[in-house]
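Intended use. Records like the one below are meant for learning the mapping from a protein sequence to its folded structure. Do not use them to infer anything beyond what is encoded.
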Amino acid sequence: MQAIKSKNNLPHATVGKTYLETLLFPDGEYELTIEVAHCEVNRFFLTKGDLEGVLPQMTIEFYADEENKCCMTLQYHSRSSSLTEESEAIISLRKDLADRVSVGIANLKKKLE
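Structure written out for the chain above:
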């Protein structure tokens, strides 16, 4: 990812909130719009992107475990039926997302400690 910025004036975690994200792939830079499609505050967050050929979707879910500790799952999916695990776009995105998630989790831990 090169950059992400708000694209409209709606508050974060509001259905319809949009962001403009710039991605850097081996073959160049791409922009996509990401829209909040569903949100239940402190429980569920779903976004959908318009990157042609990939149609990314991100799902974040928060829940309490058996010890009443807060847990989170983060999943990225492609809504495109033409992609496979071996597709070049998926391989590039997997690496980029893994790096971004590692940084994000480290930053979140710092804020919570």
